[in-house]
Write a structure and sequence with these properties.
The radius of gyration is 35 Å and the shape is elongated. By secondary structure, it is of the alpha/beta class. It has a domain of about 140 residues: Conserved hypothetical protein from pyrococcus furiosus pfu- 392566-001, ParB domain (Alpha-Beta Complex). The termini are far apart. About 50% of the residues lie in helices and about 10% in strands. The N terminus is likely disordered.
Amino acid sequence: MGASLMARNIFNQPPKDEKESAAPSPTMQKTAKLPGSVGGLRDSLREITANSIRDIEPDQIDMDGLRDRLVLEDTSIDELAESIRKHGQQVPIMVRPSGQPDRYRIIYGRRRLAAIRKIGGTVKAIVRTLDDDASLIAQGQENNLRLDPSFIEKSLFIREMQEIGYKPGVIQDALGLTRQGVSNHRVVIDQLPDGLVQLIGPAHGIGRRQWGDLAALSGKVDLVNSAKEVIAALPDDTPSPERFQAVYSACSHKARADKKPTNRGVTSVVKNESGDTVGTLTVDQKAIAIKIAKKDNPEFGQWLEERAEAALLQLFDTWRNESGSGS
């Protein structure tokens, strides 16, 4: 089944046509279809069971699969746990059967599951038999509908999906991005050193341009060590966007401070025995320049202008004779 068709069917009841229904998970054992009315009853019961909301013990659910969140242990989880404790779980999570009896694999709802594990009790879950591609699309779409992952979380998610080998169409459908959008995320994350994003966190509200600007400093500043120093000086509860801004500001300042000044050379003033200025001599890595100001000594300036070429050749001949570089 194509990625776009899977995307349309994730949150709906499976179509009656078995050819259009989601493929079973590779971990599930196939059960032979029973003939006649008994087989039809068994299929109907299986379909109802596969799409019902169940109360499941949290420890029966494995938190495997790709992570689309950088953190699952923060103040927002505590707030969600308190809300569920007061009002109950309003939105079920989605799981799929595991290869082991009475065990499930999380598809989406990791934050809700983490919150319920804090307060105890069972978790309401929709059980769907989905293959890996359909599970990935469901995970991405549900997150986009609820707490949208940040730019950098999406970037990490994209890189992990690509490295595992998911097809471009599946990745695009999972995150609701165009091919160019996927490429834009990947370009930025590939320029950032390992470990930097984990130090800063998801940084909601920090977009492609800002992360790109930080990545551009990687050739001038040790971003990871600089980030460690900056974050160590911040309060522990500093929000992730503020950590980003502090790191970017510090790294930008360091890049400007470490920038080597333009080599303008060393200039010395040449004076005669009476202390009058004859001219200036400027030496840098590229050239040696002798400058005579005509307004200070117009007669000498005119004289040197007439003889400068001959004088330079004479100096060159003298050097060649003294250094033994003659032809």
